[in-house]
C-alpha cells in the first residue's frame, strides 16, 4: 500500500511548511511510550520517565492510543478548517494550539478520538458518535479486540467526552511543565532550519510547469528514503501501510518537521481537513525497500563467496573470476548488482579497477531493516 501525492496542477502555493509545538509534543510522547522505536532518544526518554510525576506517568498510560501508530489528528494544525496556503496561520505557539483544542466542539473531538481508539479508519463513520446508538455500538465493537488502553479510552470517551478532553488538556499542560518546555527550546531552532530548507526546495522551480513540478517532486521525495517519483501524471509515492491519495492542487498540504518523530513519516489525510506530512528532519538514508534488496542480494551463494573475498582485500574482476571459477562477465554482473545496491566500492589502480566490500554498509543491514520497517 502507499500514499500517493498527485502533483498535476500543483505549485509551491499548494504547500505550506510550518513548525508546530503541539505536533512535536505528540512525537515526544510517542518516543516516551515506544522507546524501542527510537534508540537515539532512549537516554532522553529514560531521564524524562525516571523523573516523571505520578500524574504524568498515569497520563502516558491513559492517553497512549492518541500517539501510537495512527497519530491523533488533534495534534496537528488545521482543525478549524484552515488549509495550508490559507490566509490564517496554520500553526502557532503551544498556548494557542492548546486553546484551539479546548475550543474544539465536543462532537468533533469525539469523532477524531474515536478514530484514534480504533487505530485506523476502515470505513468507520463517527461523525454523530455522541448521538447515534449505532456509531457508539460500532466503536465498542471495534475496540473489543484491541488493547486494554484503547478499550479504556473509548469507554471514557463514550461516558463523558468533555471530561475526557479536559483530562487530556491537563495532561498536555503537565507535559509542558515537566519536560516539553526544555525539549522545545532545544528542538525549535533545528525545526525552523529544516522548514526553511524544505520551503526553498519547494519553490526552487519558480512555480508551475515542468521545472516547478520536478522541484516539487524532488522536495517531497527527499522526505523519505522509500519515496518514488513517477510520471503520467506526475506524482510522489510513499511506501506506507495504508492507502491514501492526496491532490494538493485541490487540497493544499501542510508539511511539519519533527526531530523526535524520527524515523517515522506520519501522513494524516482525514476528510474535510488539510492533509499533513509530519516528516523527520533526519530521514534515514536507507529505506525498507533498499534494505530488503541488499539482504536478498546476499542470499546468492556465489555473491556470498565473492563478498567474502573482497571483504579481505580489494580485487580485480579477472582475479575474482579465476578464484571463483567464473567468467569475467559473470563476475562483472554480480559486482554491478552489489555496487548498485551500495554494498561494493571501487578504486582505480593504474589501468585496473579494484572492488572492495563496503563493510560499514553490511554492518548497518540489521539496523537499516529495523529503521526501514518503522518509517
Outline of the structure:
This protein has 375 residues and is of the alpha/beta class. The chain has 15 helices and 10 strands.
Question: What would you note in describing this structure?
Answer:
- It contains 15 helices and ten strands.
- Helices cover 50% and strands 12% of the residues.
- The chain starts with a strand and ends with a helix.
- It is elongated.
- Residues 82-89 have low confidence and may be disordered.
Shape: elongated
Radius of gyration: 24 Å
Low-confidence stretches: 82-89
Strand fraction band?
5-15%
Biggest sheet, spatial arrangement of strands: 3-4-1-5
Q: So how many helices?
A: 15
Order of helices and strands: EEHHHHHHHHHEEEEEEHHHHEEHH
Helix content: 40-55%
Mean pLDDT across residues = 88
Biggest beta-sheet profile: 4 strands, mixed
- Structural class of the helices, strands and pairings? alpha/beta
* Termini separation: 14 Å
Strand tally, please? 10
Keywords:
four-stranded mixed sheet; alpha/beta; 15 helices; single chain; elongated; 375 residues; 50% helix; 10 strands
Topology:
Elements: E1 2-6, E2 15-17, H1 21-33, H2 42-50, H3 54-62, H4 94-102, H5 106-117, H6 133-143, H7 148-159, H8 161-203, H9 210-221, E3 227-230, E4 235-239, E5 244-246, E6 253-258, E7 266-268, E8 276-280, H10 288-297, H11 301-312, H12 317-324, H13 328-340, E9 344-349, E10 352-357, H14 359-363, H15 365-374
Parallel strand pairs: 1-5, 2-6, 6-8
Antiparallel strand pairs: 1-4, 3-4, 7-8, 9-10
Helix pairs in contact: 1-8, 3-8, 5-7, 6-7, 7-8, 8-9, 10-15, 12-13
Amino acid at each position: 500500500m502507499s500514499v500517493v501525492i498527485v502533483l498535476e496542477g500543483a505549485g509551491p502555493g499548494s504547500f505550506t511548511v510550518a513548525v508546530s509545538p503541539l505536533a512535536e509534543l505528540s512525537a515526544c510522547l510517542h518516543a516516551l511510550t515506544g522507546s524501542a522505536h527510537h534508540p537515539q532518544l532512549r537516554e532522553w526518554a529514560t531521564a524524562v520517565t525516571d523523573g516523571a510525576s505520578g500524574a504524568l506517568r498515569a497520563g502516558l498510560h491513559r492517553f497512549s492510543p492518541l500517539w501510537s501508530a495512527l497519530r491523533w489528528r488533534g495534534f496537528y494544525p488545521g482543525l478549524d478548517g484552515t488549509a495550508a496556503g490559507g490566509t490564517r496561520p496554520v500553526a502557532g505557539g503551544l498556548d494557542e494550539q492548546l486553546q484551539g483544542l479546548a475550543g474544539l466542539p465536543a462532537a468533533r473531538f469525539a469523532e477524531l478520538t474515536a478514530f484514534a481508539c480504533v487505530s485506523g479508519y476502515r470505513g468507520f463513520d463517527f461523525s454523530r458518535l455522541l448521538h447515534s446508538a449505532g456509531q457508539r455500538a460500532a466503536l465498542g465493537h471495534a475496540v473489543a479486540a484491541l488493547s486494554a488502553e484503547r478499550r479504556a479510552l473509548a469507554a471514557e470517551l463514550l461516558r463523558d467526552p468533555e471530561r475526557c478532553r479536559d483530562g487530556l488538556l491537563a495532561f498536555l499542560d503537565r507535559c509542558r511543565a515537566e519536560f516539553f518546555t526544555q525539549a522545545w527550546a532545544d528542538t525549535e531552532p533545528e525545526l525552523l532550519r529544516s522548514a526553511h530548507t524544505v520551503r526553498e526546495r519547494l519553490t526552487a522551480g519558480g512555480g508551475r510547469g515542468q521545472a516547478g513540478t520536478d522541484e516539487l517532486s524532488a522536495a517531497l521525495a527527499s522526505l523519505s528514503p522509500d519515496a518514488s517519483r513517477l510520471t503520467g501524471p506526475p506524482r510522489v509515492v510513499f511506501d506506507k501501510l495504508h492507502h491514501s491519495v492526496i491532490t494538493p492542487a485541490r487540497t493544499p498540504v501542510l508539511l511539519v518537521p519533527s526531530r523526535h518523530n524520527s524515523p517515522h513519516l506520519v501522513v494524516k489525510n482525514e476528510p474535510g481537513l488539510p492533509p499533513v506530512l509530519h516528516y523527520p528532519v533526519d530521514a534515514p538514508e536507507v529505506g525498507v525497500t533498499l534494505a530488503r534488496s541488499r539482504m536478498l542480494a546476499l542470499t546468492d551463494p556465489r555473491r556470498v563467496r565473492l563478498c567474502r573475498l573482497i571483504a579481505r582485500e580489494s580485487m580485480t574482476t579477472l582475479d575474482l573470476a579465476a578464484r571463483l571459477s567464473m567468467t569475467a562477465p559473470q563476475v562483472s554482473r554480480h559486482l554491478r548488482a552489489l555496487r548498485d545496491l551500495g554494498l561494493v566500492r571501487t578504486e582505480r589502480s593504474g589501468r585496473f579497477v579494484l572492488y572492495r566490500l563496503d563493510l560499514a554498509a553490511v554492518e548497518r543491514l540489521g539496523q537499516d531493516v529495523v529503521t526501514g520497517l518503522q518509517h
